Amino acid sequence: MGSSGEDFLVAVIAGYETAIRIALSVSPEHRFRGYHPTATVGVFGAAIAASLLLKIDVHQTVHAMGLAGSHAAGLFQFQYDGSMVKRIHPGRSAQSGVLSALFASKGLTGPPQILEGTYGFGRVMSDRFSMETITQELGSYWHIMDVGIKPYSACRFCHASIDGALEIRSQPGFNPAAVESVEILGSQQLYSQTGNQKPETLTGAQFSTPFEVALALYTGNVMPVDVKI
Fold first, then answer.
1. Could you give the number of structural domains in the chain?
2. How far is residue 225's CA from residue 14's CA, in Å, rounded to a whole number?
C-alpha cells in the first residue's frame, strides 16, 4: 500500500486493541471451550488493521468486521497430540482479516452485529460475553501495553516456571542430577493447557511446563535445538 510509518503503527495498534478487547469480552470461557484465541480473535484485529491501511470508510470497515467473524476459527485440539496445525493459525487469521477488508472495499457485505448479535461471535463462542468489556476505557487504556513477549519458544504459560528453573540452576553448586522432584504452583489454565508430563512431539514439548522446566534445569537452555524427543 506504500503506507507511511505513522499509518502502519496506527493500524498495528488498532489491530492489537481490537483483538485483545474482543478476546477479553469472551474470556475465559472461550478458551475453555477449546477455541484458540490467536486464531479466532486475531482475524478481527487483522481486519481492522487492513481496513485502516486500505483507507476504506467506517461503513465498509463494519462490513469487514462482519465478514471476518465468519472466518473466526481455530481449535486447541493440537495440545493433546502436539500436531503442527497451531503454526498456521496466526497466518490464517491474518490472511482472512486482510481478505475481509479487501472484500468489503469491493462492496461485499457482512453482518454489522457480528459481535453482539443472536448468532454473533460473542454469544456463540462464550457463555460469558460482555459487550461492555470491548469499549471499557477505550481510547484511554491501551491493552497493547499488556502484551507479553516470549523469550522462550514455548507456550507463554510455561515462561514463569522456566524463569524460576533457570534461576535455580544459576545457583552455585547446583547439580541437576540431585533433583528428585519439582512442584509448580499455577493457575487451572496453566495445568490444563501445559500440564502434559509425557510430550511426544516438538510442539507437545513446547506445550509442556514439566518438560520445559526439566529441560531448563538440565541444560540451562529451552530452545527447539535443545529438545530431544
1. 2
2. 36
Model pTM score = 0.87
* Phi, psi (degrees; rounded to nearest 5) at 222: -140, 45
Q: Is 153 exposed, middle or buried (0-12, 13-18, 19+ CB in 10 A)?
A: middle
Is residue 80 situated within a structural domain?
A: yes
Phi, psi of 167 (to 5 degrees): -65, -40
- Per the structure, the complete domain to which residue 217 belongs is given by 156-226
Q: Give domain status of residue 151, yes or no.
A: no
Grouped pLDDT means (10 residues each) for the chain, 229 residues: 96 98 96 94 98 98 98 92 90 98 98 97 96 96 92 92 96 94 91 90 91 94 73
Q: Among all chains, which residue has been given the C-alpha cell 535443545?
A: 226
Write out the DSSP string of 4-49: -HHHHHHHHHHHHHHHHHHHHHHTTHHHHTTB-HHHHTHHHHHHHH
Final residue of a domain: which of 125, 146, 167? Answer: 146
